[in-house]
Amino acid sequence: MPMARDVLVEVAKQHGVCIKPLALRRLDVVTGQTEIIDVPCGSTLDSKCPPCAKRNRQLRMAQCREGWHLDTEPAITPDEPNEEQRWLVEFRADMQAKRDAAAQVGDDTTDLDAVLSGLDDEINAAGMRGSVTGSAVPKRTRSTRRRQDAPDLPKRKMANTTLGRTFTSPDGKVYRPSLFVTLTLPSYGKVRNGVPLDPDTYDYRRAARDALHFSKLVDRFVQNLRRVAGYDVQYFASVEPQKRLAPHLHMAIRGTLPRAEIKQIAAATYHQVWWPQADEVRFDGAHLPIWDEQAGYLDPATGEVLPTWDEALDALDEDAEPLHVLRFGEQVDVQGVLAGTPDADQCIRYLSKYLTKSLGDALDGGQAQREHAARMVDALRYEPCSPTCPNWLRYGVQPKNAKAGMAPGRCRSKGHKPEHLGYAGRRVLVSRKWSNKTLAEHRQDRRTWVLEALGQADEPTDPHRYIWRPVPAGDANVPPLAVRLLRTVAERQRWRAHLRELEARAAGQDHSATWEEAA
Q1: CA separation for the pair 304, 298 (Å, rounded)
Q2: Quick one: which of 213, 222, 226 has its CA closest to 185?
Q3: Helix axes 204-212, 214-229, angle to 10 degrees
């Protein structure tokens, strides 16, 4: 016989109810009323809760559909600063002046630095983006001369538009085609059904480094694409795993370019990783650097202080070669797509196919593919993933912001987790002027539709009216999870019944698909 609790969870999934809700205490500062509210765990797009993951996937599909074939320029104009924002920046200026004066006479600035850090947080919380002072870390520069082994790219004069070209047919109908592009990484060895034919000759090190830096290669492709296209190209892209477990990119591009130019751009795109060498192992096993509170990490045999991250970069002379160079593979697929066609819908579904899964979930090739994934994870174990990665100690360099307790092979970053297979970037990449809406506005659209269908007013909520606090574990005011799920399922059943009644009244209209997206 099935367990009643398991049946409840399955019913909750079928009704789109979050099965891992977060209980928060909400205080209404106007009325003073306090109540416990269940917040879906799917507030983050990488939620593992199946209903929330499905809802987030539908949200991304709506975002992709609305922005792909826009025929009007998106209007992205920042709001005028309000009085609170102006006052915060003015107060930040006063505190900065006090901090500079204290530093000039040699006084301790610790307390003032803490005040400035708190003010920066308040500035962001007040509805302003970015930092007042920008990045305080000087940027290292390398020669911008293109590599001799990379083809040159044409450059067109930039036009102030995000829309692609239109084409008029003989009957006067105007078409605005767009593109669906798939980019892959190069080969690391012959594979069959996603598994290397000869694991001993398969280049796992190169595959690991390509996966770790793949997001930077995508950024370079977008830069080159805009340079060649001559307008502010907008895109919606997703990173998915190939069967051989290497990441590859699907990209919906607004507007169109010749297929030959897209392939030329892909062939000319590369990314150079200007890091210290990571091929010669200096410390391994029990012979590892030791920590000193004053100097940092020391050579255990000689007591010599290991070079810091900045010192290791300074040691790279002008003739130094990059640690790694990434390129796309030869397979570049380019398809033309028209708005409102079955091809467009199919591409959107394909873009969002893997958004509810991690890269490691693609392991469906049996024992051989699992062994292939294990070898890939092993290759990633000691590969540095960032300047702060503890793996740099293995190669005789102190990681950036080094601290006690670091050890090679114990990096906790996303790229070293088996389920990510080296790719630590965002799975969904959306340009700023894609749909002329933020993700929160897309969520609000769905909320507005549901409330209007249910006959309820969608009144805006004052963001300063409520104070949210986490509920401690074991709080007696929080009902058991099963009871909370039952209540939410009952509420969702009432909604569905109401919407089904509305559908019956609207002859010839199909609201079922809309409900599935909005629920």
Answers
A1: 5
A2: 213
A3: 60
CA trace torsion 347, 351, 352, 353 (10° rounding):
80
- What distance in Å separates the CA atoms of residue 262 and residue 181, rounded to the nearest whole number? 8
Contact (CB, 8 A) for 164 and 231 = yes
Average pLDDT, the chain: 87
3-state secondary structure 97-139: HHHHHHHHCCCCCHHHHHHHHHHHHHHHHCCCCCCCCCCCCCC
CA gap 249, 232 in Å, rounded:
20
Q: Is 476 exposed, middle or buried (0-12, 13-18, 19+ CB in 10 A)?
A: exposed
Q: How far are the Cα atoms of 133, 238, 392, 400, 402 from residue 307, in angstroms, in the given order?
A: 30, 39, 11, 10, 11
pLDDT digit string, tens, across residues 129-188:
888 887 655 666 666 677 878 888 888 888 889 988 888 888 888 888 999 999 999 999
Give helix then strand counts, H and E, for the chain: 13, 16
Dihedral sign, Cα of residue 361, residue 364, residue 366, residue 368: negative
Write the single-letter amino acid at 222.
V
Residues 237 and 248: beta-carbon distance below 8 Å: no
Structure tokens at 68: 């792909």
- Residue 242 dihedral angles phi and psi, to the nearest 5°: -75, 170
Backbone phi and psi for residue 484, each to the nearest 5 degrees, phi listed first: -65, -40
pTM of the model: 0.82
What is the three-class DSSP state of 514? helix
Amino acid symbol at 422:
G
Give the Cα separation of 240 and 224 in Å (integer).
Answer: 22
The 10s digit of each residue's pLDDT in 232-266 is 999 999 998 888 999 999 999 999 999 999 999 99
Q: What are phi and psi of 36, to 5 degrees?
A: -90, 125
Q: DSSP class of residue 19?
A: S
177 burial type by CB count under 10 A (0-12 exposed, 13-18 middle, 19+ buried): middle
